[in-house]
Amino acid sequence: MSNTPKLFERNLSLGVAAARNLATATVTAVQNTARTPRWLHRLLPWVDVDGGVYRVNRRKVVVAQPGRIVIQFTGDKVQVDPASLRHVPLFAGLETADLEALAAQFVSETHALGEVVATEGGAATKLFVVALGKVELTFAGPHGAANRQALLGQGAFFGEEALIGGAAWTPAAKALTAVTLLSLEKAKAEALAKKSPALNDALASATETRAAAAAQANEFGERVIDLLTVAGGEPTLPATFVDYEEDPREYHLSTIQTILRTHTRVTDLYSNKIDQLREQVRLTVEAVNEWEEWELINNPHFGLLHEVSASHRLPTRSGPPTPDDLDELLSLVWKKPAFFLAHPKAIAAFGRECTRRGVPPPTVNLFGSPFTTWRGVPLIPTDKLLINGKAAAGGGPGTTSILLLRVGEAEQGVVGLQKAGVAGEVEPGLSVRYMGTDQNSIASHLVTRYFSTAVLTTDALASLDNVLVGHYHDYVYPQA
Questions:
Q1: Calpha distance 385→341 (Å, rounded)
Q2: What does the alpha-carbon distance between residue 432 and residue 257 come to, in Å, rounded to a whole number?
Q3: I need a labelling partner for 418 at 20 to 30 A (CA). Which of 144, 196, 244, 295 fits?
């Protein structure tokens, strides 16, 4: 057989390789893995803000509400932040020097899982602050069973009646995990009170002050509006008025900006089926919208995670998000709750707990997509609620938070803020403006988004914290 190569090979038709040179490829738009549905942006009602400032007027609060105490960790040392002691109503009016003296008297103590910290009805002797772990407060119900009064996490406190004196009823306190507590003994507080007239007055008049406050304020600390129910006769009607906050909260619109640069050669020569400039703008706008949603949740000044009041923060009872935990959230935001907001892994963890209990949650279709619900309230996924500070769970026990929102101005809920109608607007509140072309033939466009978010009342937003997302159940299946 000859190994001589053939000089000519006759084809019966045009070859594929040559034909491709005459074909026009079908191309797609640039695919963007970082893009998400941004459900929060779709579900929030948006308010157009004139002048860039949104002022939230509320009724005046005449009785300070309990808050969270900040815990400071310095090496192995644990202590309370002195200024945050003002979140204890008893200490709200004290000066900095008195708060620092009180903070120095707190002593750290640890308790094992299941250990009783205080017994029900016992004489309170200490003010406790939870530094690490969880503590459950219970009381005996009418049928003898223990009923939970509160579940306390980091920064919460109990036992302040110990500093007031008198025979105050106290609930039982038990450690649900290994806990570290910071405690202030009554004797130490009384010793400081002898040196501080302000602290002495606060402790001595606490009982009378609380009674007077209860008479003039409702459960939210707002001044009571005096009313009278008349069954007959001509009684003297009460005179009343509604007082407002003198220094209401103001939200200033924040700005996300960038300069998009494109070479004119690229936009002129390579804009065939797909306009290169339009594609650059689309991808940049998507990045702006993704970053905006992150800010709506995590911004330290107006983000939802930082706007939750202390009274509306709950720790999980056992770590994973259970139906009981979400029911507790619903009991806090019970006035027309709109939706839960959670990381997809937190929603998956909740689904596993429902499967474990034999109560698979139903689904509902919104925007053409199925969503898990609980008690009819949808769980909306977002990767902007971080796990251990990251978008995805890494090593170690991953924890996150689940938010529950009521939305809308009419419902005194959560609203998004934006400035619509700006020059060069491509979406409400988002503009792209041409800035000129430089000597290198590079055109610049300024991309700007004005936005913020506001929580109109404290009961419009609640958070379930320390949600464990990596817990799985092992099931025993019957043998075939």
A1: 8
A2: 10
A3: 244
Model pTM score: 0.88
The whole-number pLDDT of residue 17 equals 83
pLDDT tens column, 139-163: 887 877 778 888 999 999 998 888 8
Q: pLDDT tens for residues 174-200?
A: 999 999 999 999 889 888 988 888 888
Q: What value does the mean pLDDT take over residues 45-64?
A: 91
> Who's near 172: CB < 8 A, 6+ residues apart?
116, 118, 119, 120, 137, 138, 139, 146
Nearest to 101 by CA among 166, 190, 206: 190
Tell me which residue has tokens 């934006």: 418
Residue 328 host element (H or E): helix 323-332
- Stated as kind and residue range, the H or E segment containing 209 is helix 206-216
Length of the chain: 480
Count Cβ atoms within 10 A of the Cβ of residue 246 and give its class: 0-12 exposed, 13-18 middle, 19 or more buried: exposed
Residue found by looking up tokens 């033939």 in the block:
441
The counts of H helices and E strands in the chain are: 11, 25
Check if the beta carbon of residue 181 is closer than 8 Å to that of residue 131: yes
Q: Which residues are within 8 A (CB) of 34 and not within 5 positions of it... i.e. 6 or more apart?
A: 286, 287, 290
Please report, as a single letter, which amino acid is at residue 237: L
Q: How many CA atoms lie within 13 A of 267 on its CB side?
A: 15
| Measured torsion, CA atoms of residues 383, 388, 392, 398, in degrees rounded to the nearest 10 | -110
Q: Which residue has the higher pLDDT, 171 or 430?
A: 430
Q: Does position 212 have pLDDT exceeding 80, yes or no?
A: no
Q: Which amino acid type is present at position 82?
A: P
Sign of the four-CA dihedral 120, 125, 129, 130: negative
CA distance 431 to 419: 10
What are the tens digits of pLDDT across the range 396-426? 578 999 999 999 999 999 999 999 999 999 9
* Beta strands at 254-263 and 442-455: parallel, antiparallel or unpaired: antiparallel
